[in-house]
Specification:
The chain is mainly α and about 200 residues long. It has a domain of about 130 residues: Tetracycline Repressor, domain 2, CATH 1.10.357.10. The protein has nine helices and no strands. It is elongated, with a radius of gyration of 18 Å. It starts with 14 loop residues before the first helix and ends in a 5-residue tail after the last helix.
């Protein structure tokens, strides 16, 4: 799958080019989450306040744009995990971050639909980018999980891949209702605090 076109190593994009790219990503995230695969690239460019040519210069295809939006969301989740790791309230940090993951999945249903449509994916299909994003979120969750386990707040035999599978399943079980999914997560989290 093609990846987002970026400047060559060492090159620094102009400040206005960075601003345009940021505006395009923000407008695209809103549009894809609202309209899914039906989101209009022309409308995204208009909402970002740039010409269509600017959009295509940064993102030559719909797939490039969707992938860039997803990557930005994953980067933000991973950065949030890094910020929370190593704090005093290990259990709160882990639960807080997992709630952020729940929110991301709940509000990104349209984005996911657009991604699946852009690349013609079927259930169970995974692109190299998606596989990499799963590895990134697993790695981001690991220090939070270890902190909670070291504090005796989470059962010691829980693996990070099991935790992230549970969180994903809970988010999808919420069927787009983040509040319901967060309640399910809290109930599950409480069940993970003892060895059984």
């Amino acid at each position: 799958m093609p990846t987002t076109s970026e400047p060559s190593p060492g090159a620094r994009p102009r400040a206005d080019a960075r601003r345009n790219r940021d505006r395009l990503l923000a407008a695209a995230e809103r549009a894809f989450n609202r309209f899914g695969a039906a989101a209009s690239l022309d409308d995204i460019a208009r909402a970002a306040g740039v010409a269509n040519a600017t959009l295509y210069r940064h993102f030559p295809t719909r797939g490039h744009l969707i992938t860039a939006v997803y990557r930005e969301r994953i980067d933000a989740l991973c950065a949030a995990a890094t910020d929370l790791a190593g704090g005093d309230a290990a259990g709160d940090a882990l639960l807080g971050w997992l709630n952020a993951v729940i929110d991301h999945i709940a509000v990104s249903r349209g984005l996911r639909e657009a991604f699946v449509n852009a690349y013609g994916l079927r259930d169970g299909d995974e692109t190299p980018e998606v596989a990499a994003w799963h590895r990134m979120t697993d790695a981001a969750a690991m220090p939070l999980l270890r902190d909670a386990q070291a504090a005796g707040l989470i059962r010691a035999d829980l693996e990070v891949t099991e935790l992230m599978t549970l969180v994903s399943a809970i988010a999808h079980a919420g069927n787009g209702d983040a509040d319901h999914a967060r309640r399910l997560l809290t109930l599950t989290f409480e069940g993970l605090t003892s060895e059984g």
